[in-house]
Structure formats: structure tokens, C-alpha cells
């Protein structure tokens, strides 16, 4: 099953949403994001809508995919953001579930899950303390089809971003789950902050440890 890395295209979004749903099925935050029982919008549909809007409106996004060349199936994907201007000193406020955002062209408004606001506050505090106004590369999303995990697909996606950040002289950063921690350490990231996120207010009886990780530019990635 030879794997090939390339840039993701808008036509790949439905396939990405499917593998994202499979990869995140047991993640507490993903469960907290699913609003099927409240607004009627399942998380997979929400992810597809958000991804499509990002493709259309966010020039800082770089979407990558890994494809199984034998089947042509999309088996892993990542979203990197390259921010030459750094993080604004006073970022705009995050939207909560009581605020509605319209999906482009669908004629509907869609509440944002409250857990996203809670995660955003943790992310903002991390950025303020460790990133600030320095140019940086941010790994926002990394997912692999469970059938293809531990075959190197995720490492290909992380390595590409590391190398691109090095070319641009940028620090790289991310928020890591336990599942991805060893991979990120392998690629030169180090944990600099840990913040517990209680998911019980969002209907999930779990606590998610949000690990902020930073990788200085020009750190050699392990093979």
C-alpha cells in the first residue's frame, strides 16, 4: 500500500470528513462537539461545512492529504496554517453556541458548540504566553483513517509542515492529544503547557488534557 502526500482539494472534503469522524469517534471533545441531539447537525456534517468554508475564505490554510496509491483512497489529512504576522495581541472573541454562524450558501444558521469556545480560550492563553507576535506555523488538524494508523501517513504530514516551517524560519506549534503525543515528540515538538478541560458541562463525563507544544525552527526531525 504505497502512500503519497499531496495537497488536498475541495473535492476531497467529503472523504476527509468521513475519516475525521472515524478517527475521532472515541475522543471526548468530538463527542462534546456533536450537536445532533440539540440542533440536529451531526459533527461530521459540521466538520465538512467548516472545512469547505475554510477552503473558500482562509488564505493561510494549507490542507494536505495522504493517499493510498493502490486504491486512490484518502487515508490521512492535515491542516497547517502559516502566519507570518504572528497572533494578534487582542484576538477577536470566540463564538459560543448561543451565537449563530451561517454556512456559506446553505441559507441556514448554525450554532457553534460551546466546547469550541472553551478550547479557544485555552488556545488563546497558550498563544499569548508562548507564541505572541512571532511568525509561526500551526498544526490545526491531523487525522488518519483507523485502518491506516501506524503506517507512517501522519508522520508524512507532520514532517512536511516541519520542513516548511524551517524554510520560512518559523516556530511551529500545536495542541496535542495523548494519541498524537509520541509522534509530535519524534518531530521535535516539546510540551510547554498542560491545561485540563472539564467536558462535563458539555455533556461528556471526561477531562481532556490540552497540551500546548512548540517546536523551534531548524530542529531535525527523526526519520
From TrEMBL:
- Please list the residue ranges annotated as the N-acetyltransferase domain: 66-211
Q: Where is this region: Disordered?
A: 85-111
Gene3D superfamilies on file: 3.40.630.30
* Listed GO MF terms: acyltransferase activity, transferring groups other than amino-acyl groups
Top-level division of the source organism's lineage = Eukaryota
SUPFAM superfamilies attached here? Acyl-CoA N-acyltransferases (Nat)
Question: Which Pfam families would you find in this protein's record?
Answer: Acetyltransf_1 (PF00583)
Question: Which protein, by its recorded name, is this?
Answer: N-acetyltransferase domain-containing protein
Q: Which organism is it from?
A: Salinomyces thailandicus
Amino acid at each position: 500500500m504505497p502512500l503519497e502526500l499531496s495537497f488536498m482539494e475541495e473535492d476531497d472534503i467529503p472523504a476527509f470528513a468521513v475519516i475525521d469522524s472515524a478517527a475521532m469517534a472515541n475522543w471526548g471533545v468530538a463527542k462534546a462537539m456533536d450537536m445532533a441531539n440539540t440542533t440536529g447537525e451531526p459533527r461530521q456534517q459540521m466538520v465538512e461545512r467548516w472545512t469547505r468554508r475554510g477552503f473558500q475564505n482562509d488564505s493561510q490554510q494549507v490542507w494536505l492529504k495522504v493517499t493510498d496509491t493502490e486504491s486512490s483512497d484518502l487515508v490521512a489529512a492535515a491542516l497547517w496554517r502559516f502566519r507570518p504576522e504572528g497572533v494578534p495581541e487582542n484576538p477577536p472573541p470566540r463564538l459560543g453556541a448561543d451565537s449563530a454562524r451561517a454556512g456559506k450558501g446553505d441559507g441556514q444558521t448554525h450554532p457553534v458548540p460551546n466546547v469550541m469556545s472553551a478550547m479557544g480560550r485555552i488556545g488563546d492563553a497558550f498563544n499569548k504566553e508562548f507564541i505572541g507576535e512571532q511568525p509561526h506555523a500551526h498544526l490545526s488538524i491531523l487525522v488518519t483513517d483507523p485502518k491506516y494508523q501506524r503506517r507512517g501517513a501522519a508522520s508524512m504530514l507532520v514532517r512536511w509542515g516541519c520542513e516548511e516551517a524551517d524554510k520560512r524560519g518559523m516556530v511551529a506549534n500545536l495542541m496535542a492529544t495523548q494519541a498524537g503525543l509520541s509522534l509530535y515528540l519524534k518531530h521535535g515538538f516539546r510540551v510547554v503547557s498542560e491545561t485540563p478541560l472539564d467536558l462535563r458541562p458539555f455533556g461528556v463525563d471526561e477531562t481532556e488534557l490540552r497540551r500546548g507544544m512548540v517546536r523551534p525552527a531548524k530542529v531535525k526531525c527523526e526519520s
